[in-house]
Protein backbone atom coordinates (compact mmCIF):
# COMPACT_ATOMS: atom_id res chain seq x y z
CA UNK A 1 0.00 0.00 0.00
CA UNK A 2 1.55 3.33 -1.01
CA UNK A 3 2.50 5.66 1.81
CA UNK A 4 0.14 8.66 2.00
CA UNK A 5 1.50 12.03 0.99
CA UNK A 6 3.25 13.81 3.82
CA UNK A 7 3.37 17.62 3.95
CA UNK A 8 6.75 19.13 3.27
CA UNK A 9 6.71 20.84 6.68
CA UNK A 10 6.37 17.42 8.30
CA UNK A 11 9.29 16.03 6.31
CA UNK A 12 11.39 18.95 7.54
CA UNK A 13 10.51 18.20 11.15
CA UNK A 14 11.24 14.52 10.60
CA UNK A 15 14.68 15.49 9.30
CA UNK A 16 15.36 18.09 11.98
CA UNK A 17 14.38 15.76 14.83
CA UNK A 18 16.60 12.97 13.41
CA UNK A 19 13.77 10.43 13.27
CA UNK A 20 15.24 8.65 10.25
CA UNK A 21 17.08 5.34 10.92
CA UNK A 22 20.58 5.50 9.43
CA UNK A 23 20.69 1.76 8.84
CA UNK A 24 17.83 1.98 6.34
CA UNK A 25 18.78 5.08 4.39
CA UNK A 26 20.27 4.95 0.90
CA UNK A 27 20.48 7.42 -1.95
CA UNK A 28 18.52 6.55 -5.03
CA UNK A 29 21.74 5.27 -6.63
CA UNK A 30 22.41 2.88 -3.72
CA UNK A 31 24.87 4.75 -1.49
CA UNK A 32 24.40 4.51 2.27
CA UNK A 33 23.45 7.70 4.14
CA UNK A 34 24.49 8.42 7.73
CA UNK A 35 23.29 11.68 9.26
CA UNK A 36 25.94 13.04 11.63
CA UNK A 37 24.28 16.43 11.95
CA UNK A 38 21.04 17.50 10.23
CA UNK A 39 22.24 21.10 10.04
CA UNK A 40 20.58 24.31 11.18
CA UNK A 41 17.08 25.21 10.04
CA UNK A 42 17.25 28.12 7.60
CA UNK A 43 14.40 30.60 7.65
CA UNK A 44 15.92 32.90 5.02
CA UNK A 45 16.44 32.36 1.32
CA UNK A 46 18.33 29.23 0.30
CA UNK A 47 18.31 25.56 1.35
CA UNK A 48 16.12 24.34 4.21
CA UNK A 49 19.06 23.27 6.40
CA UNK A 50 22.57 24.65 6.33
CA UNK A 51 25.88 23.25 7.52
CA UNK A 52 24.81 19.60 7.80
CA UNK A 53 27.34 16.77 8.19
CA UNK A 54 26.38 13.62 6.28
CA UNK A 55 28.31 10.52 5.31
CA UNK A 56 27.24 9.37 1.84
CA UNK A 57 28.73 6.14 0.55
CA UNK A 58 31.43 6.29 3.23
CA UNK A 59 32.52 9.83 2.34
CA UNK A 60 31.90 12.69 4.78
CA UNK A 61 30.22 15.75 3.29
CA UNK A 62 29.49 19.07 4.93
CA UNK A 63 26.98 21.40 3.33
CA UNK A 64 23.28 22.12 2.90
CA UNK A 65 20.14 19.98 2.67
CA UNK A 66 16.97 20.72 0.70
CA UNK A 67 13.70 18.92 1.42
CA UNK A 68 10.71 18.53 -0.92
CA UNK A 69 7.65 16.33 -1.28
CA UNK A 70 8.67 15.33 -4.81
CA UNK A 71 12.00 15.48 -6.60
CA UNK A 72 10.61 17.64 -9.42
CA UNK A 73 10.09 20.47 -6.92
CA UNK A 74 13.81 21.13 -7.31
CA UNK A 75 13.15 22.26 -10.87
CA UNK A 76 9.76 23.82 -10.15
CA UNK A 77 11.36 26.08 -7.54
CA UNK A 78 14.25 26.87 -9.96
CA UNK A 79 16.93 25.74 -7.52
CA UNK A 80 18.91 24.45 -10.52
CA UNK A 81 19.57 28.07 -11.55
CA UNK A 82 20.12 29.56 -8.08
CA UNK A 83 23.77 29.74 -6.87
CA UNK A 84 22.53 29.79 -3.25
CA UNK A 85 21.90 26.03 -3.66
CA UNK A 86 25.38 25.17 -4.96
CA UNK A 87 26.42 23.77 -1.56
CA UNK A 88 23.50 21.34 -1.35
CA UNK A 89 24.90 17.90 -0.45
CA UNK A 90 21.59 16.04 -0.21
CA UNK A 91 18.09 16.42 -1.63
CA UNK A 92 15.53 14.65 0.60
CA UNK A 93 12.13 13.82 -0.91
CA UNK A 94 9.20 11.55 -0.18
CA UNK A 95 9.09 10.34 -3.76
CA UNK A 96 11.17 10.70 -6.91
CA UNK A 97 8.99 11.52 -9.91
CA UNK A 98 11.67 12.45 -12.47
CA UNK A 99 15.07 11.29 -13.71
CA UNK A 100 17.41 12.08 -10.78
CA UNK A 101 20.17 13.09 -13.19
CA UNK A 102 18.12 16.20 -13.93
CA UNK A 103 18.60 17.38 -10.35
CA UNK A 104 21.68 19.55 -10.64
CA UNK A 105 23.04 22.65 -9.00
CA UNK A 106 23.56 25.90 -10.88
CA UNK A 107 27.22 24.84 -11.17
CA UNK A 108 26.13 21.64 -12.96
CA UNK A 109 26.78 19.14 -10.16
CA UNK A 110 24.30 16.26 -9.71
CA UNK A 111 22.70 16.47 -6.26
CA UNK A 112 22.54 13.17 -4.28
CA UNK A 113 18.89 12.18 -3.79
CA UNK A 114 17.43 10.46 -0.72
CA UNK A 115 13.93 9.09 -1.37
CA UNK A 116 11.89 8.22 1.75
CA UNK A 117 9.01 6.50 -0.05
CA UNK A 118 10.22 2.93 0.52
CA UNK A 119 11.11 3.54 4.15
CA UNK A 120 7.72 5.09 4.90
CA UNK A 121 5.99 1.99 3.53
CA UNK A 122 7.90 -0.43 5.74
CA UNK A 123 6.22 -2.07 8.72
CA UNK A 124 7.77 -0.39 11.76
CA UNK A 125 6.87 -1.10 15.36
CA UNK A 126 5.81 2.51 15.57
CA UNK A 127 4.53 4.25 12.52
CA UNK A 128 6.87 7.19 11.79
CA UNK A 129 3.93 9.22 10.57
CA UNK A 130 2.19 8.73 13.90
CA UNK A 131 5.33 9.88 15.68
CA UNK A 132 5.30 13.05 13.66
CA UNK A 133 1.73 14.08 14.32
CA UNK A 134 2.35 15.84 17.63
CA UNK A 135 5.28 17.78 16.17
CA UNK A 136 3.42 18.90 13.07
CA UNK A 137 1.04 20.96 15.16
CA UNK A 138 3.96 23.07 16.38
CA UNK A 139 5.23 25.44 13.67
CA UNK A 140 8.87 26.49 13.70
CA UNK A 141 8.13 29.86 15.34
CA UNK A 142 5.54 28.57 17.83
CA UNK A 143 5.68 27.09 21.32
CA UNK A 144 3.52 24.64 23.22
CA UNK A 145 3.39 25.68 26.85
CA UNK A 146 1.16 26.78 29.71
CA UNK A 147 -0.22 30.28 30.03
CA UNK A 148 -0.64 29.80 33.76
CA UNK A 149 2.19 30.85 36.09
CA UNK A 150 4.35 27.85 36.92
CA UNK A 151 4.39 26.60 40.48
CA UNK A 152 8.12 25.89 40.60
CA UNK A 153 10.41 28.27 42.54
CA UNK A 154 12.10 30.82 40.32
CA UNK A 155 15.47 29.75 41.67
CA UNK A 156 14.94 26.21 40.41
CA UNK A 157 13.92 27.49 36.97
CA UNK A 158 17.06 29.65 36.89
CA UNK A 159 19.24 26.66 37.74
CA UNK A 160 17.53 24.61 34.98
CA UNK A 161 18.14 27.32 32.39
CA UNK A 162 21.78 27.67 33.47
CA UNK A 163 22.23 23.89 33.19
CA UNK A 164 20.80 24.00 29.65
CA UNK A 165 23.27 26.77 28.86
CA UNK A 166 26.15 24.54 29.94
CA UNK A 167 24.70 21.74 27.81
CA UNK A 168 24.65 24.05 24.80
CA UNK A 169 28.30 25.01 25.40
CA UNK A 170 29.18 21.30 25.54
CA UNK A 171 27.57 20.87 22.12
CA UNK A 172 29.77 23.65 20.77
CA UNK A 173 32.83 21.97 22.29
CA UNK A 174 31.91 18.67 20.63
CA UNK A 175 31.50 20.37 17.26
CA UNK A 176 34.89 22.04 17.55
CA UNK A 177 36.44 18.73 18.59
CA UNK A 178 35.04 17.14 15.43
CA UNK A 179 36.51 19.94 13.35
CA UNK A 180 39.87 19.54 15.12
CA UNK A 181 39.89 15.86 14.15
CA UNK A 182 39.14 16.82 10.55
CA UNK A 183 42.08 19.24 10.59
CA UNK A 184 44.34 16.49 11.94
CA UNK A 185 43.18 14.13 9.19
CA UNK A 186 43.75 16.77 6.53
CA UNK A 187 47.27 17.39 7.79
CA UNK A 188 47.98 13.65 7.76
CA UNK A 189 46.74 13.35 4.15
CA UNK A 190 49.04 16.15 3.08
CA UNK A 191 51.95 13.90 4.08
CA UNK A 192 54.09 16.64 5.50
CA UNK A 193 53.96 18.96 8.44
CA UNK A 194 56.22 21.99 8.04
CA UNK A 195 54.73 23.87 11.00
CA UNK A 196 56.65 23.76 14.29
CA UNK A 197 55.13 22.40 17.46
CA UNK A 198 53.70 24.89 19.90
CA UNK A 199 56.53 26.99 21.27
CA UNK A 200 56.64 29.27 24.25
CA UNK A 201 54.28 27.05 26.21
CA UNK A 202 56.71 24.70 27.90
CA UNK A 203 54.81 22.62 30.38
CA UNK A 204 51.54 24.14 29.19
CA UNK A 205 50.97 21.99 26.12
CA UNK A 206 51.89 18.46 27.17
CA UNK A 207 51.73 15.35 25.07
CA UNK A 208 48.22 14.90 23.72
CA UNK A 209 46.34 11.95 25.13
CA UNK A 210 42.65 12.64 24.63
CA UNK A 211 41.87 13.20 20.94
CA UNK A 212 44.56 10.86 19.64
CA UNK A 213 47.73 9.32 20.99
CA UNK A 214 50.10 10.43 18.23
CA UNK A 215 50.55 13.92 19.56
CA UNK A 216 49.55 15.36 16.20
CA UNK A 217 47.17 17.86 17.82
CA UNK A 218 50.02 19.48 19.74
CA UNK A 219 50.52 21.82 16.81
CA UNK A 220 49.87 25.50 17.28
CA UNK A 221 48.67 25.87 13.68
CA UNK A 222 45.76 23.47 14.29
CA UNK A 223 44.42 25.47 17.21
CA UNK A 224 44.96 28.79 15.47
CA UNK A 225 43.02 27.58 12.43
CA UNK A 226 40.25 26.27 14.67
CA UNK A 227 39.91 29.63 16.42
CA UNK A 228 40.17 31.50 13.11
CA UNK A 229 37.26 29.51 11.69
CA UNK A 230 35.24 29.98 14.86
CA UNK A 231 35.68 33.76 14.92
CA UNK A 232 34.85 34.02 11.22
CA UNK A 233 31.71 31.95 11.72
CA UNK A 234 30.59 34.12 14.64
CA UNK A 235 31.10 37.29 12.62
CA UNK A 236 28.71 35.91 10.05
CA UNK A 237 25.95 35.71 12.66
CA UNK A 238 22.92 33.70 11.60
CA UNK A 239 22.49 34.65 7.95
CA UNK A 240 26.12 34.54 6.78
CA UNK A 241 27.61 31.98 9.16
CA UNK A 242 28.13 29.37 6.43
CA UNK A 243 29.93 31.55 3.83
CA UNK A 244 32.17 32.98 6.54
CA UNK A 245 33.13 29.46 7.60
CA UNK A 246 33.72 28.41 3.99
CA UNK A 247 35.94 31.44 3.46
CA UNK A 248 37.98 30.55 6.56
CA UNK A 249 38.40 26.98 5.29
CA UNK A 250 39.32 28.13 1.77
CA UNK A 251 41.63 31.00 2.70
CA UNK A 252 43.31 29.51 5.73
CA UNK A 253 45.38 31.25 8.33
CA UNK A 254 48.43 29.38 7.02
CA UNK A 255 47.75 30.95 3.60
CA UNK A 256 47.91 34.40 5.20
CA UNK A 257 51.12 33.61 7.11
CA UNK A 258 53.54 34.61 4.28
CA UNK A 259 52.03 38.11 4.45
CA UNK A 260 52.03 40.49 7.40
CA UNK A 261 48.77 40.25 9.30
CA UNK A 262 49.08 43.91 10.27
CA UNK A 263 49.21 44.89 6.58
CA UNK A 264 45.50 45.67 6.66
CA UNK A 265 45.13 46.53 3.01
CA UNK A 266 46.69 43.24 1.88
CA UNK A 267 44.46 41.31 4.30
CA UNK A 268 41.44 43.18 2.92
CA UNK A 269 42.48 42.36 -0.66
CA UNK A 270 42.92 38.65 0.11
CA UNK A 271 39.77 38.08 2.15
CA UNK A 272 37.49 40.24 0.03
CA UNK A 273 38.98 38.68 -3.09
CA UNK A 274 38.51 35.15 -1.76
CA UNK A 275 34.97 36.03 -0.70
CA UNK A 276 34.02 37.25 -4.19
CA UNK A 277 32.97 40.58 -2.66
CA UNK A 278 35.33 42.88 -4.54
CA UNK A 279 33.14 44.78 -7.03
CA UNK A 280 34.47 45.65 -10.49
CA UNK A 281 36.62 48.77 -10.32
CA UNK A 282 34.09 50.98 -12.08
CA UNK A 283 31.06 49.77 -10.12
CA UNK A 284 31.14 51.80 -6.88
CA UNK A 285 29.40 55.09 -7.59
CA UNK A 286 31.52 56.99 -5.07
CA UNK A 287 35.00 58.15 -6.12
CA UNK A 288 36.60 57.24 -2.78
CA UNK A 289 35.22 53.71 -3.04
CA UNK A 290 36.29 53.33 -6.67
CA UNK A 291 39.82 54.34 -5.75
CA UNK A 292 39.94 52.05 -2.73
CA UNK A 293 38.46 49.07 -4.57
CA UNK A 294 40.92 49.58 -7.43
CA UNK A 295 43.84 49.33 -5.00
CA UNK A 296 42.40 46.16 -3.43
CA UNK A 297 41.83 44.56 -6.83
CA UNK A 298 45.38 45.36 -7.93
CA UNK A 299 46.78 43.87 -4.73
CA UNK A 300 44.54 40.80 -5.06
CA UNK A 301 45.79 40.27 -8.61
CA UNK A 302 49.39 40.32 -7.30
CA UNK A 303 48.83 37.74 -4.55
CA UNK A 304 46.15 35.62 -6.24
CA UNK A 305 48.66 33.03 -7.61
CA UNK A 306 49.48 32.08 -4.00
CA UNK A 307 45.85 31.13 -3.34
CA UNK A 308 44.89 28.11 -5.42
CA UNK A 309 41.63 27.68 -3.57
CA UNK A 310 37.94 27.76 -4.48
CA UNK A 311 36.55 31.27 -4.43
CA UNK A 312 33.16 32.28 -3.14
CA UNK A 313 30.69 34.23 -5.24
CA UNK A 314 28.77 37.37 -4.38
CA UNK A 315 25.59 35.25 -4.54
CA UNK A 316 26.82 33.22 -1.54
CA UNK A 317 26.33 36.22 0.75
CA UNK A 318 23.07 37.54 2.16
CA UNK A 319 22.52 41.29 2.65
CA UNK A 320 18.71 41.08 2.72
CA UNK A 321 17.07 42.33 5.96
CA UNK A 322 20.39 43.11 7.58
CA UNK A 323 21.31 46.33 9.32
CA UNK A 324 24.22 47.88 7.38
CA UNK A 325 26.46 47.41 10.41
CA UNK A 326 25.92 43.66 10.05
CA UNK A 327 26.60 43.50 6.32
CA UNK A 328 29.17 40.80 5.47
CA UNK A 329 31.42 43.53 4.06
CA UNK A 330 31.50 45.31 7.44
CA UNK A 331 32.09 42.06 9.34
CA UNK A 332 34.82 40.91 6.95
CA UNK A 333 36.56 44.26 7.37
CA UNK A 334 36.32 43.71 11.14
CA UNK A 335 38.02 40.32 10.76
CA UNK A 336 40.91 41.88 8.84
CA UNK A 337 41.37 44.34 11.70
CA UNK A 338 41.25 41.56 14.31
CA UNK A 339 43.94 39.40 12.71
CA UNK A 340 47.07 40.97 14.28
CA UNK A 341 45.83 40.84 17.89
CA UNK A 342 44.22 37.39 17.76
CA UNK A 343 46.57 35.58 15.39
CA UNK A 344 49.81 37.53 15.32
CA UNK A 345 52.93 36.14 17.08
CA UNK A 346 51.87 34.74 20.44
CA UNK A 347 48.21 35.55 19.89
CA UNK A 348 46.78 32.13 20.68
CA UNK A 349 49.16 31.72 23.63
CA UNK A 350 47.94 35.02 25.08
CA UNK A 351 44.38 33.75 24.85
CA UNK A 352 45.26 30.59 26.76
CA UNK A 353 47.32 32.45 29.37
CA UNK A 354 44.34 34.67 30.10
CA UNK A 355 42.79 31.63 31.79
CA UNK A 356 45.95 30.45 33.56
CA UNK A 357 46.71 33.27 35.97
CA UNK A 358 45.41 32.00 39.30
CA UNK A 359 45.37 35.52 40.74
CA UNK A 360 42.88 36.96 38.23
CA UNK A 361 39.16 37.20 38.85
CA UNK A 362 36.63 36.16 36.16
CA UNK A 363 35.82 39.82 35.51
CA UNK A 364 39.50 40.65 35.05
CA UNK A 365 39.90 37.78 32.60
CA UNK A 366 36.88 39.00 30.68
CA UNK A 367 38.34 42.51 30.40
CA UNK A 368 41.54 41.04 28.96
CA UNK A 369 39.56 39.05 26.41
CA UNK A 370 37.59 42.15 25.43
CA UNK A 371 40.86 43.97 24.74
CA UNK A 372 41.69 41.40 22.04
CA UNK A 373 38.62 42.55 20.07
CA UNK A 374 39.30 46.27 20.06
CA UNK A 375 39.65 47.35 16.45
CA UNK A 376 40.83 50.61 14.90
CA UNK A 377 39.43 50.97 11.39
CA UNK A 378 41.45 52.83 8.80
CA UNK A 379 40.23 56.02 7.16
CA UNK A 380 38.08 54.17 4.64
CA UNK A 381 36.26 51.86 7.06
CA UNK A 382 35.69 54.69 9.53
CA UNK A 383 33.18 56.06 7.05
CA UNK A 384 32.04 52.92 5.17
CA UNK A 385 30.20 49.66 5.89
CA UNK A 386 30.14 48.53 2.26
CA UNK A 387 31.47 49.74 -1.07
CA UNK A 388 28.29 51.40 -2.33
CA UNK A 389 28.22 54.60 -0.28
CA UNK A 390 29.42 56.35 2.85
CA UNK A 391 28.03 55.54 6.27
CA UNK A 392 27.84 57.51 9.48
CA UNK A 393 30.75 57.29 11.87
CA UNK A 394 32.12 55.27 13.61
CA UNK A 395 31.81 52.93 10.62
CA UNK A 396 33.10 49.41 11.18
CA UNK A 397 33.04 48.46 14.86
CA UNK A 398 32.38 45.59 17.25
CA UNK A 399 30.13 46.65 20.10
CA UNK A 400 30.32 45.10 23.59
CA UNK A 401 27.38 42.76 22.94
CA UNK A 402 29.04 41.37 19.80
CA UNK A 403 32.33 40.88 21.63
CA UNK A 404 30.50 38.97 24.36
CA UNK A 405 28.96 36.71 21.71
CA UNK A 406 32.39 36.06 20.21
CA UNK A 407 33.76 35.08 23.61
CA UNK A 408 30.78 32.81 24.37
CA UNK A 409 30.59 31.11 20.97
CA UNK A 410 34.28 30.92 20.00
CA UNK A 411 36.76 31.63 22.79
CA UNK A 412 35.15 29.76 25.70
CA UNK A 413 34.34 26.49 23.82
CA UNK A 414 37.78 26.28 22.19
CA UNK A 415 39.62 27.10 25.42
CA UNK A 416 37.59 24.44 27.24
CA UNK A 417 38.34 21.96 24.45
CA UNK A 418 42.04 22.81 24.78
CA UNK A 419 41.81 22.25 28.54
CA UNK A 420 40.12 18.90 28.06
CA UNK A 421 42.53 17.69 25.38
CA UNK A 422 45.63 18.62 27.40
CA UNK A 423 44.11 17.89 30.81
CA UNK A 424 44.36 21.40 32.23
CA UNK A 425 41.60 21.60 34.88
CA UNK A 426 42.60 25.10 36.01
CA UNK A 427 42.02 26.48 32.52
CA UNK A 428 38.69 24.68 32.23
CA UNK A 429 37.53 25.94 35.62
CA UNK A 430 38.60 29.50 34.77
CA UNK A 431 36.71 29.38 31.46
CA UNK A 432 33.55 28.19 33.22
CA UNK A 433 33.85 31.03 35.75
CA UNK A 434 34.25 33.61 32.98
CA UNK A 435 31.19 32.22 31.22
CA UNK A 436 29.06 32.96 34.27
CA UNK A 437 30.00 36.67 34.42
CA UNK A 438 29.51 37.54 30.74
CA UNK A 439 26.51 39.88 30.43
CA UNK A 440 23.68 39.01 28.03
CA UNK A 441 23.93 39.85 24.36
CA UNK A 442 21.27 41.21 22.06
CA UNK A 443 17.78 39.79 22.40
CA UNK A 444 16.25 38.00 19.45
CA UNK A 445 12.82 36.66 18.57
CA UNK A 446 13.53 33.30 20.24
CA UNK A 447 14.75 34.67 23.56
CA UNK A 448 11.82 37.10 23.68
CA UNK A 449 9.35 34.30 22.90
CA UNK A 450 10.66 31.91 25.56
CA UNK A 451 10.91 34.69 28.11
CA UNK A 452 7.30 35.69 27.50
CA UNK A 453 5.61 32.31 27.05
CA UNK A 454 7.58 29.74 29.05
CA UNK A 455 9.24 31.91 31.71
CA UNK A 456 6.47 34.53 32.02
CA UNK A 457 9.22 37.13 32.37
CA UNK A 458 9.75 35.85 35.92
CA UNK A 459 13.32 34.65 35.33
CA UNK A 460 15.64 37.42 34.08
CA UNK A 461 18.07 36.54 31.31
CA UNK A 462 20.81 38.28 33.24
CA UNK A 463 23.83 36.48 31.75
CA UNK A 464 24.99 35.21 28.39
CA UNK A 465 24.94 31.69 29.84
CA UNK A 466 21.24 32.00 30.63
CA UNK A 467 20.56 33.24 27.10
CA UNK A 468 22.34 30.17 25.79
CA UNK A 469 20.12 28.05 28.02
CA UNK A 470 16.96 29.64 26.64
CA UNK A 471 18.11 28.98 23.06
CA UNK A 472 18.83 25.36 23.96
CA UNK A 473 15.42 25.02 25.62
CA UNK A 474 13.68 26.31 22.50
CA UNK A 475 15.64 24.26 19.96
CA UNK A 476 15.85 20.92 21.78
CA UNK A 477 12.78 20.85 24.00
CA UNK A 478 10.10 23.23 22.74
CA UNK A 479 10.32 22.62 19.00
CA UNK A 480 10.39 18.79 19.19
CA UNK A 481 7.64 18.90 21.88
CA UNK A 482 9.79 17.24 24.57
CA UNK A 483 7.59 18.86 27.21
CA UNK A 484 7.68 15.87 29.56
CA UNK A 485 11.49 16.19 29.79
CA UNK A 486 11.35 19.89 30.67
CA UNK A 487 10.74 20.89 34.29
CA UNK A 488 8.44 23.66 33.05
CA UNK A 489 6.52 21.61 30.51
CA UNK A 490 6.15 18.65 32.84
CA UNK A 491 4.02 20.84 35.11
CA UNK A 492 1.46 21.47 32.37
CA UNK A 493 -2.08 20.21 32.79
CA UNK A 494 -3.59 18.30 29.83
CA UNK A 495 -6.10 21.08 29.14
CA UNK A 496 -3.35 23.67 28.95
CA UNK A 497 -0.53 21.69 27.35
CA UNK A 498 -2.40 21.45 24.07
CA UNK A 499 -2.73 25.22 23.73
CA UNK A 500 -0.61 26.83 21.05
CA UNK A 501 0.95 30.19 21.69
CA UNK A 502 1.98 32.10 18.59
CA UNK A 503 5.44 33.65 18.65
- General shape: globular
Structural class: alpha/beta
The percentage helix is 40-55%
Q: What oligomeric state best describes the polypeptide chains here? A: single chain
Number of strands: 8
Give the termini separation.
Answer: 39 Å
Q: The biggest beta sheet, please? A: 6 strands, mixed
Count of helical segments? 18
Could you explain the architecture of this structure?
43% of the residues lie in helices and 9% in strands. Strands 1, 2, 3, 4, 5 and 6 form a six-stranded mixed beta sheet that branches. Strands 7-8 form a two-stranded antiparallel sheet. Strand 2 (40-41) and strand 3 (49-56) form a beta hairpin. The chain is built from 18 helices and eight strands. It has three domains: 8-136, no CATH class; 142-162 and 443-502, no CATH class; 195-257 and 323-435, no CATH class. With 503 residues, the chain is of the alpha/beta class. The chain has helices spanning 8-16, 73-76, 117-121, 128-136, 154-190, 220-235, 241-250, 253-256, 264-275, 287-303, 328-343, 347-353, 362-372, 400-421, 425-435, 445-453, 464-478, 494-497; strands at 33-37, 40-41, 49-56, 59-70, 88-95, 113-115, 142-144, 500-502.
Give structural attributes.
503 residues; alpha/beta; 3 domains; six-stranded mixed sheet; two-stranded antiparallel sheet; 18 helices; 8 strands; 9% strand; disordered C terminus
Amino acid sequence: MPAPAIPEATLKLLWQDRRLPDSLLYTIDGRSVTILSPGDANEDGGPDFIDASIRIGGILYRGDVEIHSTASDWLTHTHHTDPHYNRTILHVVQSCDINPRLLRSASGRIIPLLELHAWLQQDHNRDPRAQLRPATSVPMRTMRCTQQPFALPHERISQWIDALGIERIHQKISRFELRLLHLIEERAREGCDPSPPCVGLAGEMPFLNRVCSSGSSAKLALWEQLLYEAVMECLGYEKNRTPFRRLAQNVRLANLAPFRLDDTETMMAILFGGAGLLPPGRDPPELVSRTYVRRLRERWAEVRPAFRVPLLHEADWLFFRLHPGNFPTARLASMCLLLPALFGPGGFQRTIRTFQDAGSSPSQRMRVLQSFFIISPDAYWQTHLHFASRARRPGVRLGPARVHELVVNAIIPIVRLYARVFEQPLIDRSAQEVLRVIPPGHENSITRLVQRVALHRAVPLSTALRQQGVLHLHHFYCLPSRCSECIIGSQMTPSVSGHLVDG
